[in-house]
Amino acid sequence: MGMQQETTCHSLIAGKSTPGVAGRVRSVDPSTDREEGPEFSFLSEGQLCAAVQAADEAFAEYRALDPARRAAFLEDAAQKVDAQGEEIISTAMRETGLPRQRLQGELARTVNQLRLFAGVAREGDHFGVRIDPALPERGPLPRPDLRQRKVPLGPAAVFGASNFPLAFSVAGGDTASALAAGCPVVFKAHNAHPATSQLVGLALSAAVAEADLPGGVFSLVYGRGNEIGQQLVKDARIKAVGFTGSRGGGTALMATAAARPQPIPVFAEMSSINPVVVLASAIASRTMRAVLAEGFIGSVNGSGGQLCTSPGLMFVPAGSDGDAFIETVADQVSMAEGATMLTPSISTARVRGESRVSSLPGVHEVGHGVEGASANAPAPSVYSAAATTFLQTPALAEEVFGAHSLLIRYADLEELEALVDHLEGQLTATLHLDPEDSGDLEMARSILPALELKVGRVLANGWPTGVDVGEAIVHGGPFPATADGRSTSVGTLAIDRFMRPVAYQNLPEGLQPEVVRDANPWGVPRRVDGEYDLGG
Amino acid sequence: MGMQQETTCHSLIAGKSTPGVAGRVRSVDPSTDREEGPEFSFLSEGQLCAAVQAADEAFAEYRALDPARRAAFLEDAAQKVDAQGEEIISTAMRETGLPRQRLQGELARTVNQLRLFAGVAREGDHFGVRIDPALPERGPLPRPDLRQRKVPLGPAAVFGASNFPLAFSVAGGDTASALAAGCPVVFKAHNAHPATSQLVGLALSAAVAEADLPGGVFSLVYGRGNEIGQQLVKDARIKAVGFTGSRGGGTALMATAAARPQPIPVFAEMSSINPVVVLASAIASRTMRAVLAEGFIGSVNGSGGQLCTSPGLMFVPAGSDGDAFIETVADQVSMAEGATMLTPSISTARVRGESRVSSLPGVHEVGHGVEGASANAPAPSVYSAAATTFLQTPALAEEVFGAHSLLIRYADLEELEALVDHLEGQLTATLHLDPEDSGDLEMARSILPALELKVGRVLANGWPTGVDVGEAIVHGGPFPATADGRSTSVGTLAIDRFMRPVAYQNLPEGLQPEVVRDANPWGVPRRVDGEYDLGG
């Protein structure tokens, strides 16, 4: 399963390494701007078609797996990815510029996520089984026997994100949840980390083979980003799309999916500036201001600011405590060093984004850090503006991807409410407050109802970067944070994206799907006649 | 609350009767083709805006209601609709041509549906609460306290269907589920039953007032179908759309919703021909054939064939039993009498649709019933064609709304599988088989996996018309049966359409929504640390 770094990376179609005939590209080390990664080959349209065909052919057998086998497959995939951990991490370091510790954490998250979804598949709650037993004596009409379960949608196209080469990439959340649901996955590798993708893809393909599943359960494909993406989403055999990336990329896929003869759901996680609301008592002392400013700049600059939940916007009270806090932020940012960004073009866009913001009337520089020593490592930056400026300048609400944030001063509750109302949909919103202070609590209670309608997650006294993967997390939010706020791309609820309900009426028991039979052979939790039956 | 039939029907904006300034129309009695219903007035764009504004303003208070109050409101609404039952039924008979018994059943269903959703609101399972308690000792990072609940999306636009003047109209399933979720409703009355809509709208408005809720929780609006519909769906304050109607109407709303600056979900139930698969042993005896043919024509002709689940397609085995069955169907249909259709234009489209089918090469007449005595009551009709004809003629898969069906002969399993593969998404598919016959069972097992992927509900040995409203029903299915097969428009699961998850991280208890607090004050079922806690 090893891979020489010099070897060309090819697509893995149904487990088979398939040299692409539509060109080759060499990947770039962003810390040096040198083409020194491996070459990788691009699939042609006809070759991509074969990957989708394999997924389509694998679907019937794969979705019929019992929970124990599906869970075992996912656990084996986790083990195989973990076993390649050292090579994966060193490869990802070279391809992405991200530091070892960050990638170690991301690998652990990715492996745990696969195991978490193995647990979901084994428990079977995601089948959503509901049984209304027949009531032959009911008037005026007897009630038929009705049994409901969810079925997977079909082959899913999943797109890797540049900024999480593991946790939102080949074996990331979308892949794990789609596979747990019973959907084969055609995974489009992000061209910023082709060799990392290859290593993880080989591990998944090996798990597919070892479980004796049809190869088409998983394919890894390389191609020119926009073209291959459009082609995948247009293919009638693809039934759902998972995407993490830019607003432009996500909305283009949404438009393509909506224009198909049979439209399909696109789960795109796109754009968020993650507002942080600082309430008065959270910055009432010098110590509090120092701790808050340090935490803030740490969150802004973590992973070079290249996290979907990076706090790009902070609402700070007017007045002397606010002034003093902003001075502390200026001190903190001046000590921050830029990190190598994921690709040269992302770094260029970051610099251009900052220029756009800084040239707007009413925007003031708070402070800058220093450029990193390597290539593509722009200095972190913080700016400020008045609430009225923010409300009148739509460009200030646009995401600048990278270590950059904007402080907006508000005079009172009324102005803060206007700022919250002005926000687009976000992944997160954060409150910093003194939980013992009645003024802070009252202000928080006043804005929470409006704030929660804009976001997928509300935090208090923490930082939005760092997403804990479990049952209760939501990594989602109204458009444009995602294509559709009704789901999450992180956590166990993500499996729901890939499933839909089917009802069975008066089917002879022998024709019923096993999971809805009276005997509950898979021991799944169910609702029977309106009451929970926890199975077990 | 009574209404003179001579009175003009006006929109009810936040409970207030509001004469529309964009014209008036008189409704038509379809059984006589005479304009003898009441006049009703159309809203202008500015007037519609006021209804949406009222819904938007009502949202914050309405969504914050505790479960007991929301349930009591829905139960009172049910009671108030029921109390007007006799006037509602007689009005609907005149406006729709549907018979008393059918409308009595529909009224009961509508009232029960409101009560069912009151129960859903009271139980609180739809909040989908999940709690991952903090694990401060967890390594490498502590787990924060994470609590998830679902929140309603916001004001919903709901469109009445012509064919269910009660159960898919003003107080129908979409209204009941949206209100139970906490979404205010702006209801667009179907112009085929304005006076019926008015009576039910008055009952709902009275319930809103009696519960001391903001008037904007419910508005009933009249307007020119396409124009007012587009306007509603374009309005930025509308956050979800429920629609039951034609494929053209539904896809137009889907396109508008997708093109908004902030796209929103459209739940459109549109087009289905509801295939019925007859397996060999189900027609092995004369008696079986007679019972099946009678049931079939009863289902085809019930409510004039104007049901979303009307069986417009039947797959019949080749061979002598199949021939004999078709003769029996011909006998049965010859005795069937046409019913007044809902509107003159629906009747015209029905006649035109049959002409289109009958003129296609390879299509044979099986039999016709007789025209009804009233206006707009075309004779029921059945045609047949070979499997190859069906596979090669896309027009044969299009819905002809009304009492009309098509029998397709298949030679063997292979041909039956090809027919199933050829189907578009459907609300239902039905199997007729002998549950003791191993040949039938084997054939059913062979086609079920493909069949269930095309539909929302699979039935055996029954008829798809007649939808039992409960927990386990699915009235949905892949496009074009609906806009998105991941939900249902009938049954308790429909509430999920109107909600999305939000996570709360480390919020002080006093800021947490009540439903996620440790004490579980509303007693809702929750998942805590990965285990069910049934509340109570």
Textual characterization of the structure:
The structure is a homodimer of 536-residue chains. With 536 residues, chain A is an alpha/beta fold. Chain A folds into 2 domains: 11-269 and 487-497, Aldehyde Dehydrogenase, Chain A, domain 1 (3-Layer(aba) Sandwich), CATH 3.40.605.10; 275-460, Aldehyde Dehydrogenase, Chain A, domain 2. The first copy, chain A, is 37% helix and 20% strand. The first copy, chain A, has helices at residues 45-63, 67-83, 85-96, 100-123, 173-181, 194-210, 225-234, 247-259, 286-301, 320-334, 344-358, 387-392, 413-422, 438-452, and strands at 11-13, 16-18, 24-29, 34-41, 129-132, 146-152, 156-159, 185-188, 218-221, 240-244, 266-269, 275-278, 313-317, 364-368, 381-386, 404-410, 426-432, 455-460, 499-505, 526-528, 531-533. A 7-stranded mixed β-sheet of chain A has the order 14-15-16-13-12-17-18, with helices on both faces. Chain A has a 5-stranded mixed β-sheet with strand order 19-6-5-20-21, with no helix packed on it. The longest helix of chain A has 24 residues, at 100-123. At the A-B interface, helix 4, strand 5, strand 6, helix 8 and helix 14 of A face helix 4, strand 5, strand 6, helix 8 and helix 14 of B. Strand 19 of chain A pairs parallel with strand 18 (455-460) of chain B, so a sheet runs across the interface.
